[in-house]
Each structure stands twice: as C-alpha cells, then as structure tokens.
Amino acid sequence: MFNSANNSQHSLLDDLRSLATHAEELLKAATSLSGEEVQQTREKLQESLQQTRQYLEQRHGRAREKAKQVAAATDQYAHERPWRFALGGVALGVLLGAACTANYGSRRAAG
C-alpha cells in the first residue's frame, strides 16, 4: 500500500514538473519564438495540464473510496465492540483532563 502511494506521489510530482516546464517554455516562447513554435508549446502545455487534471481526479476518486471503506470498517467495528469504544473514550477523557489539570497547575504555580 505504501509503495503504491509513494509511486503515485512520484508520478504526480513528475506530472507537475512537466507542467511547470511547459509553462516556462511558453513564457519564453512568448517573446522569442515564431507563431508556430508558440502554438506547439501551447499544445504541449495544454496536454500536460489535461493529464495532470485527469491524474488528480483519479487520485481524488481513489482517496474518497478508501475513506469510505475505512469509515465503514470503523463503523462496523464500533457496532460489534461498543464497550471498547466507550472505554477508549473514557480513557482519552481522563488523559486529556489530567493533561489540562497538570498544565493549569504548572501555570498557577509559576504565576
């Protein structure tokens, strides 16, 4: 799973680098190239932009599906084991309360 995420990050970075390169070429071309060369560079830029958009839409869809799966699994686990979640909530509350009390006590002693 982590390899897949790492590969997609590299792919996204490569796409963004390519898009930036084509944008830079277009900016340079605006002053020094002929009309045909500017048009070719624009087409490259548009193609890179389209590929990057498609990739981002795919990643968004995959991330949304993964989040739905995680939420469903968590919901199922919570319904099957409600006492674990209740005890976990109580334990978290006790820890946060202790941390806040300790922080308040140290401020009060210093002040």
Give a quick precis of the structure:
The chain is mostly helical. Helices cover 95% and strands 0% of the residues.
Structure description:
Helices cover 95% and strands 0% of the residues. The chain has helices at residues 2-32, 35-80, 82-110. It has 111 residues and is mainly α. It has two domains: 2-80; 81-111. This is Membrane-anchored ribosome-binding protein, inhibits growth in stationary phase, ElaB/YqjD/DUF883 family. GO terms for molecular function: ribosome binding. The chain crosses the membrane at residues 85-105. Keywords: Membrane, Transmembrane, Transmembrane helix.
Characteristic terms for this protein:
mainly alpha, 2 domains, transmembrane, ribosome binding, 0% strand, 3 helices, 95% helix, YqjD/ElaB, elongated, 111 residues, DUF883_N, transmembrane helix
Percent helix: over 70%
**Can you give the mean pLDDT?**
79
Tell how many strands the DSSP assignment holds.
0
Provide the structure class.
Answer: mainly alpha
Q: What integer value in Å does the Rg equal?
A: 26 Å
Query: How much of the residues is beta strand, in percent?
Result: under 5%
Layout: helices, strands, pairs:
Elements lengths: L1 H31 L2 H46 L1 H29 L1
Helix pairs in contact: 1-2, 2-3
